[in-house]
Amino acid sequence: MNLSFFDQFASPCLLGIPLILLSMLFPALLFPTPNTRWITNRLSTLQLWSIHSITKQLMTPLNKEGHKWALILTSLMMLLLTVNLLGLLPYTFTPTTQLSMNMALAFPLWLATLLTGLRNQPSISLGHLLPEGTPTPLIPALIMIETTSLLIRPLALGVRLTANLTAGHLLIQLISTAITTLLPIMPTVSILTTSILLLLTILELAVAMIQAYVFVLLLSLYLQENI
User: Fold this and answer.
1) Is 89 helix (H, G, I), strand (E, B) or coil?
2) Among 147, 153, 151, 62, which Cα is nearest to 106's?
3) What gap in Å lies between CA 205 and CA 200, rounded to an integer?
4) How many Å apart are CA 99 and CA 162, to the nearest integer?
5) Is it the case that residue 100 has pLDDT exceeding 60?
6) What residue ranges do the domains of the chain occupy?
7) In Å, what is the CA distance from 160 to each residue of 19, 108, 177?
8) pLDDT-derived band of residue 4, with 50, 70 and 90 as boundaries?
């Protein structure tokens, strides 16, 4: 069967049942369950250290009112981080390459931050739509531009995450296909291309972590504007 490069982004199915929900829930099983012991193993210590570091980085730009969102933002960060990294393994499916899933994560959280601002401080939240000192003739145009930039935020969050991960997976597959094609013809070129593939894989590991961090960090900044 002739497969295209984009078949790797199709949601896997078993007996007609989509397995995307299973691929989203599976990373949670990799985390060790917490216990009440003071002295734990190295894996639990590493997990606690990473969660503490992530929470500290995300909560730094927020005031005390925004610390109520610590559990949601940290959990989202760990979910995106594990899903992105596990998607780089061979014969695995990356749910975050689906725009529908990323929009399902971005839109409700963005809307929650917006509604929080409109409920707690409506005048300040609406004041972001019109910069102070704007000339009177430019007021209608600036309000339309700022409203459009506000409404496009969840779309930018979802598209940024989808595009970065999809581009990285496609590059890895293209270079891997080139290596297998060149190996019987030009072994030396194939070996050199393998080194490029190794460097690209390391880059994709960094991109997977950075994009998860950027997604949640932008949500925390949107939250800071509305509290």
Assistant:
1) coil
2) 153
3) 9
4) 6
5) yes
6) 17-29+40-226
7) 24, 17, 26
8) low
